[in-house]
Amino acid sequence: MKNKSVLFIAILSIITLFQNCSREEELILNEDYITVTDLIKYCSKSPCYIKPVEWEGKEVKVKGHIDDNYMLLKDIRNGNNIQISVHYLCDSSCTDSIFKKIILSNNKKNMCYVKGTLQSFEMSNMFNCTVCCKILLHSANDIYFENKY
C-alpha cells in the first residue's frame, strides 16, 4: 500500500512538472504590468542629493491610459501620471512609428501597456528638488493598446 502511494505521488509530480515546463511564458497583461501609481511609489521621489538612484536604467512594464498630450501615462483612478518619451538611440523613423502608434491607437477608454527603461530626472521648485522617473521607449513594439471599446 505504501509503494502505491509513493508511486502515485511520483506520477503526479512528473505530470505537474511537464505541465509547467511545456507552458510557454504567456503574457498576462494585468498580472505582468504594474500601475503608474505603483511605479511612482517605487521610484519614491528621492531628494536630488541622493544619486544615482538604484532603479536608473531598469526595465519596467507599466499599464495606464495615455493622456491628451500623448506623452503622459496616467492612472485614471487617482490622476497620477508619469512621463513617457523616446530613447535617444531611437532614430527618426523609430520615433515616427512610436508617435503614429500612440496617436492612431489611443482611445481614452483603452488600457495602454508600456515596456521601457526607467530614467531619472530632477524636478525642482523654489523650496526643494526631487528625483522623479520617466519611461524611455525603444520601439513601437513597446506599446500595446487593449482595444475593448
Describe the structure.
It is a single chain. With 149 residues, the chain is of the alpha+beta class. About 7% of the residues have low confidence.
Short description:
This protein is an alpha+beta fold. Helix content is 32%, strand content 31%.
Helicity range of the residues?
25-40%
Strand content: 25-35%
Radius of gyration: 21 Å
The domain count comes to 1
Please tally the β strands and state the result: 7
Taken in chain order, the helices and strands follow as HHEHEEEHEEE
What is the CATH architecture descriptor? Answer: Beta Barrel
Secondary structure category: alpha+beta
Name the strands of the widest sheet in spatial order. 2-3-4-6-5
For this structure, the CATH topology is: OB fold (Dihydrolipoamide Acetyltransferase, E2P)
Task: Lay out the secondary structure.
Elements: H1 2-22, H2 29-32, E1 34-35, H3 36-43, E2 59-66, E3 72-74, E4 81-86, H4 92-105, E5 111-124, E6 129-137, E7 143-146
Parallel strand pairs: 1-2, 4-6
Antiparallel strand pairs: 2-3, 2-5, 3-4, 5-6, 5-7
Features:
149 residues; alpha+beta; OB fold (Dihydrolipoamide Acetyltransferase, E2P); 32% helix; 31% strand; globular
